[in-house]
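Protocol step 6 of 9: fold each sequence in the batch and record its structure tokens directly after the sequence line. For illustration, a two-sequence batch is reproduced in full.

Sequence one:
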Amino acid sequence: MCRETVREFSNRNMEVTGKILLALIFALYGICQVQYVSSTNVTYDHRAVVINGQRRVLVSGSIHYPRSTPDMWPDLIQKAKEGGVDVIETYVFWNIHEPQQNKSNFKGRFDLVKFIKTIQRAGLYAHLRIGPYACAEWNYGGFPVWLHFIPGIKFRTDNEPFKMEMERFTRKIVEMMKQENLFAPQGGPIILAQIENEYGNIDEPYGEAGKRYIKWAASMAVSLKTGVPWVMCKQADAPPIVIDTWNGFYGDQFTPEFPTSPKIWTENWSGWFLAYGDPVPSRPAEDLAFAVARWYQRGGTFQNYYMYHGGTNFGRTSGGPFIATSYDYDAPIDEYGLPNQPKWGHLKELHSAIKLCEGALINSEPQFVSLGPKQEGHVYSDGPNICAAFLANMDSQNDTTVKFNGVSYHLPAWSVSILPDCKNVVFNTAQVSSQTTSVQMQLASSKLVHSSSKERSYLEMEEKEWSWLPEPIGVWGKGAFSKHGLVEQINTVGDSSDYLWYTTIIDVDDDEAFLKDRTQPVLHVESRGDDLRVFINGKYKGGKSGNNSLPNITLDQPISLKSGRNRIQLLSVTVGLQNYGSFFDLRGAGITGPVKLMGFKHGEKDLSSQTWIYQIGLKGEKYRFYNGKTTAKARWATGAHMPKKQPMIWYKTSFDAPEGNDPVALDMSSMGKGVAWVNGQSIGRYWPTKLAPNTGCDETCDYRGNYGPDKCLRNCGKPSQTLYHVPRSWIRPTGNILVLFEEEGGDPHQISFKTRTVKNLCAQVSQTHLPPVDSWKSSLKTRAEGIKPKPELQLKCPSSGQVVSSIKFASFGTPEGKCGSFTHGACKTNSAIPIIHQACVGRASCSVEVSEEKFGDPCMGITKTLAVEAICS
């Protein structure tokens, strides 16, 4: 902000003499520098985090820097700030910063310092969760796989080799933050740090060594003298020198182990992650708001949304196994960086309501009030002029009316009403009046590099616009090695590739019956996942994959063998390494055996212990086919006979940037399974043939009642993911290269680019709705005079530079339908469209009072609603 102030001052005051102007500019820079480095004291007591001696009510949101791009960070953080977020939380991901031992990477998406400074420039605080174990559905839980190969190491226990490496990395991150003055006492934004992560969920098998480890971890972290409190989430036996915190869908019942610690919720799950083979989960805005309001109602003063922006698991960063490339998480900001409405707007209103209560929350203890069998209130009061109340109805079926301070209040089922003055309800969690948006993935258009100058859609790519390369089957390079028996994949590959080839030779006698009667022997393979493909003599014969619930694979594949020598080539493929559980690092991967051939004259043949030839990874990985360059090792073919629906093929094409500035995605519906790159950057694994089960979805999800990962599912019977985010910053205006590696077979010329566009905004507000929370700020001061604000319909275009260009629908009365299909009811006024047009068209945002005084009364005695659908451009 200071740099912009100086720039604006100098631009507007060019008439000032040079010496005076220079002096003033230096003075401004001096003031800014003082502001920039001013120290912030951070402590805590039993009620709250204390900043510069003041207890604070804080709202936090998780945004993970490697799941987006640096050009996205400022907008994501600004949208979080506009949504009422005070703190940005992120894990620190050890394996991206030290992918190889003794080698560091803090560039691009991994520039942690730049991310923290972006938070600081936005005027927000930061919570740095160093861990360094993250979980986070991240590959190997965030640990670099090279740790696994240190002699004598045991993860997350009282083990000297592990503790030495963990302390070294933690100290490295702390020192990096100190060098950049990023901790609060240095004038930076970091007010909290975290050591370890959810160890209490899985610590029992580690026994006493685990208990010693936790004490050591806490002491080690505190000894680094960051000047800010350390937290340790889901750790009831955490030492008192750190704050034990809560993770979960609901946290109101949580109580810290020590009475001197505040009630902190490090992970309020805003939705759930997506796994390949599963339907898409979502969490209703009403239920999420209910959980948050209950948290602050019952004494909490700090809660963090996990996630506020989920983002994308680019490259091979997704864990699991089977975690999808999309990490949208149904967060308030979607994967592409757009507000997820109405969730974002509903939570923004909630945060404003909670902040109206801050004076009472930080200066008093909650006083419980029984309001019914499933209804309760909590009152915060500090003198005659400071009072706030929360009234909750925990009944998941029935609305009710309760008496509080002699006044009747209607409480919808599964809701909380917030009264910042103990009299007026300014917000109810079940009453959503925020705008909704009609988000569309529109087919992008551009001039293709290989096409004529006419405009064409990406669906019109011709085969001649693609080049291709076959990936060798089995052994392809000098790195192959032989060994008796089956090897474990992680111990063999490390984290260098998803792929490991197992090849062996089998001789078939001429007199085998299956050669004459045309029956087929059966190959039996048992694997620890995640995906298995069978080739016989270089020809694909079939495969099988596990899933999130049952990762292990048992395959019985009929195969064709010839007389004499045959090559059995098995490709084992991981889809993200295990990231959670006790001793998760020991789970392993790859073909465990037995591997058998059945149907021979002398019975089954056990191949498990014979000699196998192993090849790590793909030739295309080693020689970087994904860059799209033609080299001696990569001679791309072209022509009219492009192979389609065939496994183990590399494809590439060129394209120009899709028009406009909307976020971009690749629609991979026509492909099987593989990996995609744009200009050498991996957008992640794709797998549109992995379908969700046909049952379990509920298109009319009821927000009432406890939420869990299996509630509110959609997309049953369909691919878990077909659209893959391509950041705009990765795309040049012209001459972009798209490269695919297809494992099982697809049709690449059916791939399309799409843009994520929000043009239609909708809002529907009744006369019975509560007014926007911000409108209460002044009226609460004059409540003795009986002045109360009225409901308002509010619209705001989602993207910078957009304005409301037209009103598609407006009706005041009894409109019917939903966004995109509104219709007039029997009661309507003719004034709605001109009033909304005048108030909104040409503006980025607008608000209109929902009242008969504004629109007239088309039908007396009936509660009326205003419904609007607008278009932004």
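Sequence two, same batch, same settings:
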Amino acid sequence: MKRFLWILVFFWGSFEWTCGSGVMFTKHPSNQTVSQGNAVRLGCAVQGVMEPDIVWMKDGDKLYSTDQMFITLGEQHWETFHSVKSVQQQDAGQYWCEVEFHGLTFSSERAWITVEGVPHFLQEPQDVATFPNVPFNLTCAAVGPPEPVQVLWWLGGIQEGEARPSPSVLHIQGVNTSVKFYCEAKNTRGISVSRTGTVHIKVLPAAPAGLQVLRMVDSNITLSWNPGFSGHSELSTCIIQVSRRSVRRRDLPQQEVPVPPHLHVLSGLRSHSNYSVRVSCVNEVGASPFSPWLHFHTPESVPSAAPRNLTFDLSEQRLSLNWATLQEDELQGKLLAYKVQWTLGGEPQEPLLFKENWAQLPGGGRFFNASFQVSACTSVGCGPWSPPVLVLPASVRVQVQRSHVWVGLLLGLLVATVVGLLLAFVTQRRGKETQFGSVFKSPGPESCVSFTAARSFSRNCAEPESTLDSLGINNDLKNKLQDVLIPVRLLTLGNMLGKGEFGSVREAFLKMEDTSLQKVAVKVLKSDITSSGDIEQCLKEAAYMKDFHHPNVIQLIGVSLHRRPGQRLPIPMVVLPFMKHGDLHTFLLLSRLGEQPFDLSLQTLIQFMLDISRGMDYLSSRNIIHRDLAARNCMLDENMTVCVADFGLSKKIYSGDYYRQGSVSKLPVKWIALESLADNIYTTQSDVWAFGVTMWEIMTRGQTPYPGVENSEIYEFLIKGERLKKPADCRDDIYEIMHSCWSPVPKCRPSFQHLVGQLEALWLSLSPGPPQKEPLLYVNLEGDEGEEGERIRKGGGGGARSPGPEEAAAASSWSVPWQQGTVDEERDWLMVGSGATLAIGGDYRYIIGPCGGAEEGEEESGEEGRRRESVDASPEEARDEEDEDEDDVIINV
């Protein structure tokens, strides 16, 4: 038994030694006091470790040294030293050494190195900004060792008093001019001199510089400026003065805005007007001089009023129409044409366009009993309609007017007679009062009322519209959708804009409450893949989307339910705003591969990225994961602003799993993050990865990502650490931003909020000058037959230049099928198919022309449509776009 206990004690001792109880320090560092510039050496020895893994520590931080030496003192016994050849004040502190063994950390005793030398400053005097003759204090603090330390002040090159102990506070009664100062700290080792400070006298700030217009959106103008010299006092506000230049100058109320930032949005300005603006900034002393006047011109808008005094003259040969012209303030732009719409027998006819405020239409008899309205149009659109005027011959109008007079007299006499009889009857008889008024008992038999219908109608019974009650969804969802459900009768579907695997996008017109028509885009799901579950998921997404309000996120207008003949469930249709310039990917391709390529400035490309990042920041703040961010899913509106589209809908409208493999659809792997490819995990960080690929698409003007790499090879390509190469002519700072989005660790990728800040700083660093005058779109209404109906003219000074984005977007000469338009050869008026109509009410991208394209009722696949874009491209570029068809397999509709 005793032998067993001795064996147990032996093994337990060995176990304690192995676990670290045998680790012990045989030498500890000792305190040392040395003079500045001398050498110092600390030693430390440890026993019980197999390898020399001794680390020196200073004030809690590890000291890393490449020349640390270890000396063997015996088996598992090591010694090391820490040496400083020339000690400086920053070497002073507390030192010790540590050893890690089996997860435990062992520390030696701690020692101090005290450095004696000239004093070093703990607080040096700082610059002072003050008003004239106002007292202020200066502070200086220094320490040894050795102690004590004396402080001596120098002001303007003159010694102020005698030396005093540190720390020292010097009280100044006030100065009238700027003056330099510093302090000296002295001990037995020598003297140290502080930094030289300056006493500044506060003055008025200098005038701001670099005043410019950053952005124009409708009647909202964003201004920016650079503050001038602050006058040694922080700027608190800036004053903005605005005047409108018309026939006479008109000053608007000045605005005072806090700064920074040195940005301000002017709102409520008149469209198509000349303005001047200048800025002054204010500090404690007062306001600076104003900056030079900046002159700018606000963009056009639709007219604010309808033409007045619409009259006509009808003869057997022609119908003559006349109306008053609009005032300049009412027009809000350059008059492009007058649009006349008319109905005959209650049926709307083709609208007409006129260049003057009068029109002569041949064949007067065919306009009998027709109703006419007129509206003024600029290049932005058409304004409100004038009251309708009914066309009747002169003789009929005279008879109608006379009959109206006689009818009025008879009605007046009849009303007077009835009122007199009623008054007499009331005075003779007492009425019975009820909650609905007075009721009189008829003295005779029951009265009968007979009438003759003025007009009768015969109408087939229409099929009832689908309601939310017919879907069997819960009450909470129904309540959320009540204000976004649009009756299908208010929608008129038009040409197909695009087609995908799960449905199509069609042009449509939505009838508003004021009977006006709004052009919209309608996403219609295929009926053969729609089930009750799909409809409920679609409606749930619509309930969330209706609360989205952001300029860079496409906003839901409503949802409509189209009942199918013989089917129990309706087809859901999602109503979205109509995006005039289409998707960003097609726009980028046209800038490279169009028949007339156009340049996109770096500032424009960064603006596209900034718009997308702002939209994604908004979505991520609302816990929305996009899952399919790419240039093809970003849309351009009429102001060239990018809106993120197809967010969150793809997964829940179309199927239970949007990214599914198989013969039905393919995976857009070239935009998907590494962790999503591996584990099918989608987060906001995976959207950031897709945003980096979208930045690469923008910088390459629509090229296919990872050229030469097959879809099946993408995962192996990325897992090896490979990434998209820097595009040609891409700045390093832009590529660094997109490359940071592709970190293999999702948490290491920047957030969208951080990306917005980076891109805003990058955009501002370009320091754009005042924006050039925007090119205007003119319609040649006076040209000879066969002359072009649309013409792009350069705005501003002379000299040719490459067309900008909006010029290129408006040009109708690109050889792609949807951009072919016809020009009517009539000179008196232009019918709906004319070039003027394209600029006024239509969309240049989807006009079906004689060169081909889908007619009404025909559907052209997105794959064929994209291949036709590359007709005029070189063979290499055409192959590039064909490769894209293999990668970009999903068409979001």
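Proceed to step 7 once all outputs are recorded. Observation for sequence two: DSSP finds 17 helices and 46 strands in the chain.
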